[in-house]
TrEMBL record:
This is Isopenicillin-N epimerase. The keyword Aminoacyl-tRNA synthetase does not apply. Residues 36-232 form the Aminotransferase class V domain. SUPFAM superfamilies: PLP-dependent transferases. It comes from Humibacillus xanthopallidus. It holds the Pfam family Aminotran_5.
Amino acid sequence: MRRDIADLFELDPALTHLNHGAFGAVPRSVREAQDQARAAVERAPMRAFRDELPAGLGDAREAAAAFVGVPTDAAALVRNVSEGVAVVLASLDIGPADEVVVSSHGYPTAASAVQARGATVSTATFGLGDDPRDVVAALAGAVTDRTRLVIVDHITSPTALVLPVAEVAAAVAPVPVLVDAAHVPGALPGLDVEALGVDFWVGNLHKWAYTPRSAATLWVAAHHRDRIRPLVTSWSHGLPFPASFDLQGTVDHSAWLAVPDGLAAWHALGGWPQVERNAALLRRGAEYVRTALGTPSPHGGIPTAPCLEVVALPPGVAETPEAAEELWQRLYAAGFVVPPVSFAGRGLLRLAAAPYNDEDDYERLAAALQTLLRAGSGAR
């Protein structure tokens, strides 16, 4: 691990952190900025809620919108992608008579949110080794006359694929498309949200953009903005989108107020050149692990994310959720924070690369895996 960079965070030095994509990691400076924002509210709560928070939250929204390259009036702050999905489902009044299409690579809470509203989930299936055309065909083929919404991941969480969301949107039109972009802000260069032809796009800022957790941005196409409402009716009620999302009662707004500090930290850590460095490191690291395990790349023609990649585990390893959990616990006990994934009956290992990682992290992981798997851990 690069100690000079790791010391900018508060990560446990006894662990090798190779799972930045799960929850991110908050730099010390950003945590301190959030503490200061919280303290400012506590010094004069009445003044803060009446006079100061609206301006501060407006600045945070503007910074988040600029970071993902969308107009300020097009994006609201929400706490995470799951909240953004729930907002869209509620605003479209998705209910028992409706169907929502998701993919087999989708994050499961999106499907859970659909089911919670009594709607039907239709899952479009495609393989890890498939072509982008297969992704488009699967999602378009799942659409019926009951389909009210298609939810597609921009970067898939379990498999680290970059999906062709613009092509999907064109293929399923006029059905609206919601993009789950949890892993995108700060990790996927060349982003042009408004050119994708989608209706909604929501990305977490706390994974790769170093903001405090509970910070995400929800972009909404212009023709939907007058119907989008926050889940909580409070003091921002009646304001136009996106200000209508700002003041939702006496919640802790400090994570949002520190969004500009997190984005400043992303730039200070190197911005896009740092992402390129991390991506190159990850490709080398994944190759170390594949070589140690003797497994081929599981990928086909679908591009992979810059800073996330999955490596195939040997046959019989982590092929069920229970076996993946067992291997996770053994890796953690050995000092490695890295998630095994059971996907479509096969075992994968999802690796990430952050500025604090170096090649030694992956070399040691490769050696540890050889030892653990020789001992039969995770095999079922």
